[in-house]
Design a protein that fits this description.
heterotrimer, A alpha+beta, B alpha+beta, C alpha+beta, B: Aldehyde Oxidoreductase, domain 4, Aldehyde Oxidoreductase, domain 3, Aldehyde Oxidoreductase, domain 4, five-stranded mixed β-sheet, about 30% helix, C: alpha+beta, Ubiquitin-like (UB roll), DNA polymerase, domain 1, globular
């Protein structure tokens, strides 16, 4: 369980890193926290000829808010998201999603940018970021572009990133107590990947009638899936647990639902509505609590 | 504790002095051994479950700048005998399927080793192994043990025409009469799935061949240093006297490390070829796919009972999925399952047919519980199901059938001879500790709200220390487990060292042996050291297994310590000019009884015994050492019979199939307790293996024989988040036949807990119209059961 | 190209030459520095036996390249006892019988160090969650939880045991 040999580069600036990445193309691989890449290299499932290690690049790990938008540096660790007071008050769903990734040690090193680029279908962030309508700043030596989360995930471990590009920043809109939210993962053990992941964001008017619902599932398809049927069923309805149950029952998984040793497609199809219902209830409870 | 009175240490909750090295990172596990000139090995393993090896080409590999050697199966087979197999059935004739240390002609499971490489360092060894080219011709794969039995199936070994590796039959009492008397017969197929012990330290070895001395020194992660030495001698045709096995600190074993590993043999061969020390440390993937698998059995049982709940007899056909080869210990887990089918109950008739079938899976052998886990699962589940059928309470039906204290010693129909205890009292204490009636009321109330908790109940008598014959098969010269030989020595400083030929695998030998020896000798606990695991300095021992330490080894320690004490007393009496019978020894000092002023330190006594030998009377030999053996009684298959009642409480989320263990009560009795803290540690740790085994862990193969759960990412050991707090209640009925009254108890946690956790899940969901007769009870399986129920209902 | 790595390990400066970039931190510590208290129990960042503190934070050293440690501080279980005194976590594990075979113990102790530095008075559930990245096969965790509780109480009182 030793990686194959590789050329190692630990540039001091982002520009240097992007130049190296441009130079090596398909042969180069960025390493952020290394918590997904290094195990794959140890199993020799991945054997990049060159590793461009981002660990010596300063300043790409900040979490800041400006004009209602939160900007998270791609190298911010899961732990820094989990502990961020800014996120806890202005985008708590992201702090919660970060807090149940892997285990404490993995969260100390793993980064949000690395997780996004790795695009594991069972990862915590992806359904949350799609639900939030997050935008990713993507850079290469040639320039910068912004990609919406919904357009970013293409397939299992496949993203819109070109070989020369890296995600440098994640942008989400801040929200306050007016939004009911929940992120939950159903997993075998607390530290495991999700069998089903759910992200829910609810907005309502003064009478608790739903005005907007974002319900996105992870781990049930190669990419995060928005449950449009559930969202439609909620909007315009008073947010009650009966409404949650009714809307959740509309949850439907596609024909690309994965099967593995822990959960076959039939299991996922069966428990997904349960997860959605429970997440909706939790989000509704949070929203009603705001009034108290 | 510095001022110890006689008997002061035994029975106390003492922290382990040996922990000092573990908590400071100063222990020595096999991977911590570094010898000058040491090189590293890595294995080339089969990607196929069943294939003919057409060719092995090491040319490219040997061109690697750091490659030293490549040993292929064809060469290894010429240089070594096959791996050993023996039976626990004395008259058993086993057709032994050849089990080479490296496959030469055919591979029979994924990751079976076909060659081993040596390179200058750990990293290069992996690179070199990758360069060995092996050409295979795939053969049909057998993955289902029942299919394997079919005549039309391919045969895995030329000398096993039916793919049956072993066939045992046991019977007792009058099975016909028992069933003739019955009002009802419960017939069920029970199944326990494949999983294993997975100690956190994988296997590892450093083999060092010294050409000049023609001597082989082996540091190995093993539970059986002496027996490994004996087997290596036979397999390698190498004089046993020239082999030294050292088992350093062992990072867990759980029966898995009773294996005489084919890889260890191959690494020894490599060292002998190179004349250099060779280290091999297993990866987790190798460990999960090619070490030892366990538990996997199908048990078709029939249990006869009367309508008042009286159990009459049990008949069972057991099919064991033995995997690709018969491991040396294969027959134990099979026989154990068969013998433990009778539980702590009075039965009149017993019959059991046990078959081990070959499939293209990793070989199968011992894991904590050694078979009894499956037998206990079947009888305990059956008793629950009969209770359900008769509308009886699960505790009451047990009470009706439990063997009573006045009936002990009691020989069960399967031939186990239980020694002492009060099983009903244990049951009562468990019911009380868990607050059974209140819990049942809570359960009923919660059910109405759609919340399903289950109260598990299981009990059994564990056999600790097997004294079976390990006869038959190729090499019968393997000692039995029912005796111990211990050397104990006082050093010139007055400190004492105990020498034991087994090895502690977390089983707290240091503190417990020291407690017993300190009391027997009259020295302070901190003045005792334990040396284990080195065959050059310890007496022959069958190793750490079958919970034999307390019931077999400890009496030997006590006997040797007493023998040394009498020697100390004689020398002290000589120094103090008193009679030996008037000498008392306490806290490291000897004195004349009633005359504390006539005192001599043990250091002084040792000085005289070692260095002022001229002053000793002629009938006192110099030195200060005793070696004694303890032979346990042989009237039953095991030496002592601890028992336990386990009552876990679980909640099953029926919508997701996820089970959470909420609390867990253990009542247990292992005779005289040496250290209750250690006893609790063993009971709780074993129970969590049961929680893991039932709810989380599963070795899953696909139909091509690829293992889908070959990492800890997919083979799920429970973490701290998946287990509850434990409440342990102690009883202590001394073992009548063992001096000191100690009973072993290390295995039991992983025996009772299976039946108990299964029972708890069943209690939570069976009222919904499902029946639990197989494991694992994973979320997927529970949902599947609920789905199938819905279909049946529709 | 191999590198020279300068680190501070357990408070001591260390300079190691000719380190392969693919060398894992755990092997650097074990094979180069002979700090064998840090163990390897899996290949997949699951078991936590290799946990060390990297600039004070718990990481799994089997999933960190050794070259990354250049210019950083690493603390292993060997570096916990100070001035002849056991760290309260070490003492707690012994006191509460929080270990049996001891193989996972250094990893648990180091993970618990990080946990207590973030949360000096954790609840039982917080301890369990904080240690979810470490596997123990012997103890059933019951006494590990008690060991961390013991350490938390004794850290608060500033007490410890002598080595």
């Amino acid at each position: 369980m030793i990686p194959r040999s590789f050329g190692y580069h630990d540039p001091a600036t982002l520009d240097e890193a992007l130049t190296l990445l441009g130079e090596y193309g398909e042969d180069g691989k960025l390493m952020a926290g290394g918590q997904s890449l290094l195990p794959m290299m140890k199993f020799r499932l991945a054997s990049p000829a060159h590793i461009v290690d981002l660990c010596r690049i300063p300043g790409v790990d900040t979490i800041e808010e400006s004009n209602g938008e939160i900007r998270i540096g791609a190298l911010a660790t899961h732990r820094s998201l989990e502990d961020s007071q800014l996120l806890k008050s202005r985008c708590p769903i992201l702090a919660k999603a970060a807090s149940s990734i892997g285990d404490a040690q993995v969260r100390n090193l793993g980064t949000i940018g690395g997780a996004i680029a790795h695009a594991d279908p069972a990862a915590n962030y992806s359904p949350v970021l799609v639900a939030l309508g997050a935008r990713f700043v993507v850079r290469s030596a040639q320039g910068e572009r912004v990609v919406a989360a919904a357009d970013f995930y293409k397939d299992t471990f496949v993203t819109a990133l070109r070989p020369s590009e890296m995600v440098t920043e994640i942008r989400v809109l801040a929200f306050g107590r007016e939004v009911g939210w929940e992120h939950a993962k159903l997993s075998r053990r607390a530290s495991d990947f999700a069998l089903v992941g759910v992200a829910v964001l609810l907005r309502a008017d003064a009478a608790d009638v739903c005005t907007q619902a974002d319900v996105v599932l992870g781990a049930v398809a190669p990419v995060p899936v928005r449950m449009q049927g559930v969202e439609v069923a909620l909007v315009g309805k008073p947010l009650t647990s009966a409404a949650a149950a009714q809307a959740a029952s509309v949850t439907k998984l596609g024909d690309k639902t994965p099967s593995d040793v822990h959960a076959d497609a039939a299991y996922r199809a069966e428990v997904a509505p349960v997860c959605v219902r429970r997440a909706l209830e939790a989000a509704i409870n949070r929203m009603t609590a705001r009034n108290k | 504790m510095s001022d110890a009175d006689e008997g002061a240490y035994v029975g106390q909750r003492l922290a382990r002095p040996e922990d000092r090295r573990f908590i400071q990172g100063a222990a020595t596990y096999v991977d911590d051994v570094a010898l000058p000139g040491m090189v590293f090995a890595a294995f080339v393993r089969s990607p196929h479950a069943h294939a003919r090896i057409k060719s092995v080409n090491a040319e490219v590999a040997l061109d690697h700048p750091k490659a030293l050697h490549v040993l292929t199966g064809a060469e290894a087979v010429k240089a070594s005998h096959p791996m050993p197999v023996y039976s626990y059935e004395p008259a058993q004739k086993i057709e032994k399927p050849a089990y080479p240390c490296l496959a030469a002609e055919r591979v029979r499971f994924v990751n079976e080793p076909v060659a081993v490489v040596a390179a200058t360092d750990r990293y290069s060894a992996d690179d070199v192994a990758e360069l060995v080219e092996v050409e295979y011709e795939p053969l049909p794969v057998l993955m289902d043990p029942e299919v394997s039995l079919q005549e039309s199936s391919a045969k895995l070994h030329d000398n096993l025409p039916n793919n049956i590796g072993l066939h045992l039959v046991r019977q007792g009492g009058d099975i016909k009469a028992a069933f003739a008397e019955a009002d009802g017969v419960l017939r069920r197929r029970f199944r326990m799935h494949r999983h294993t012990g997975s100690p956190i330290e994988p296997r590892g070895i450093v083999a060092s061949y010294n050409v000049g001395q023609n001597a082989l020194t082996v540091y190995a992660s093993t539970q059986i240093p002496h027996i490994l030495k004996t087997h290596l001698s036979e397999i390698l045709d190498f004089p046993e006297s020239n082999i030294r096995v050292i088992a350093p600190d062992l990072g867990g074993g759980f029966g898995n490390k009773l294996q005489v590993a084919p890889e260890y043999v191959a690494v020894c061969l490599l060292s002998m070829r190179l004349g250099a020390p060779v280290k091999w440390i297993e990866t987790r993937r190798e460990s999960l796919s090619a070490f030892i698998h366990a538990r996997d059995q199908i048990l078709d049982a029939e249990i006869a009972y009367k309508k008042d709940g009286t159990l009459l007899g049990i008949s069972c056909n057991i099919l064991v999925d033995a995997g690709a080869y018969l491991d040396a210990r294969i027959s134990g887990p099979t026989l154990g399952a068969g013998l433990w089918l009778t539980g702590p109950y009075r039965l009149k008739g017993y019959f059991c047919d046990m078959k081990e079938t070959m499939t293209n899976k990793c070989p199968y052998a011992a894991y904590r519980g050694f078979g009894s886990t499956k037998g206990v699962f079947v009888i305990e589940r059956s008793v629950d199901l009969i209770a359900n059928e008769l509308g009886m309470d699960r505790a009451e039906i047990r009470r009706k059938n439990l063997i009573q204290p006045e009936e002990l010693p009691y020989k069960t129909v399967s031939g186990l001879v239980y020694d002492s205890g009060d099983y009903e009292e244990a049951l009562d204490r468990a019911l009380q500790a868990v607050d059974y009636q209140k819990l049942k009321a809570e359960q009923a109330a919660l059910r109405k709200r759609g919340k399903y908790i289950g109260i598990g109940l299981a009990m059994a008598v564990e056999g600790a220390g097997w004294n079976t014959y390990t006869a038959a098969m190729a090499r019968p010269y393997v000692p039995t487990q029912d005796y111990s030989t211990i050397t104990i020595r006082m050093n010139l400083s007055g400190r004492v060292t105990i020498y034991i030929g087994d090895t502690s695998m977390g089983t707290s030998h240091g503190v417990t042996a020291s407690q017993v020896a300190a009391d027997a000798l009259g020295v302070r606990l901190e003045d005792i050291d334990l040396v284990e695991g080195d065959t050059a300095v310890t007496p022959y021992d069958s190793g750490t297994r079958a919970a034999r330490f307390a019931g077999v080894v400890i009496p030997g320690v006590e006997k040797a310590a007493k023998s040394l004490r009498s020697k100390v007393a004689r020398v002290a009496a000589h120094i103090l000019e008193a009679a030996p019978e008037d000498i008392e020894i306490r806290s490291g000092e000897a004195f004349v009884r009633g005359l504390r002023s006539k005192t001599v330190t043990l250091q002084r006594v040792a000085q005289v015994a070692f260095a002022e030998v001229w002053s000793l009377p002629p009938d006192i030999p110099p030195g200060m050492e005793a070696t004694e053996s303890f032979r346990a009684p042989r009237d039953s298959i095991c030496v002592t019979w601890p028992y336990s009642v386990h009552m876990p409480v679980v909640e099953v989320d029926v919508e997701t199939g996820i089970t959470k263990v909420l609390k867990y009560v253990i009542v247990h009795d292992c005779g005289t307790e040496i250290n209750p803290m250690v006893v609790e540690g063993q009971a709780v740790g074993g129970s969590v293996q049961g929680i893991g085994g039932v709810l989380f862990e599963e070795l899953v193969y696909d139909e091509d024989g690829q293992l889908l759960t070959s990492t800890f990412m997919d083979y799920l050991l429970p973490t701290a988040c998946e287990v509850p707090n434990f409440d342990v209640v102690h009883m202590a009925t001394p073992a009548p036949q063992i001096p000191g009254g100690y009973k072993g108890m290390g295995e039991g946690g992983a025996v009772y807990s299976y039946a108990a956790v299964i029972s708890a899940v069943a209690d939570a969901i069976e009222h919904l119209g499902v029946e639990v007769t197989s494991t694992p009870l994973s979320p997927k399986r529970i949902r599947q059961m609920m789905r199938e129920r819905a279909v049946v209902a529709a | 190209m191999n590198r020279t790595i300068q680190t501070r390990v357990n408070g001591r400066k260390s300079i190691e030459e000719n380190v392969e970039p693919r060398m894992l931190l755990v092997h650097f510590l074990r094979d180069r520095l002979r700090l064998t208290g840090t163990h390897v129990g899996c290949d997949s960042t699951n078991c936590g036996a290799c946990t060390v503190l990297f600039d004070g934070k718990a990481v799994k050293s089997c999933t960190v390249l050794a070259v990354r440690a250049h210019g950083h501080e690493v603390t292993t279980v060997e570096g916990l006892a100070q001035n002849g005194k056991l760290h309260p976590l070490q003492a707690g594990f012994q006191h509460e019988h929080g270990l049996q075979c001891g193989y996972c113990t250094p990893g648990f102790i180091m993970a618990a160090c990080d946990l207590l530095s973030r949360n000096p008075a954790p609840t039982e559930q917080e301890i369990r969650l904080g240690l979810e990245g470490n596997l123990c096969r012997c103890t059933g965790y019951h006494n590990i939880i008690k060991a961390v509780q013991w350490a938390a109480a004794n850290l608060a009182e500033g007490k410890s045991d002598h080595v």
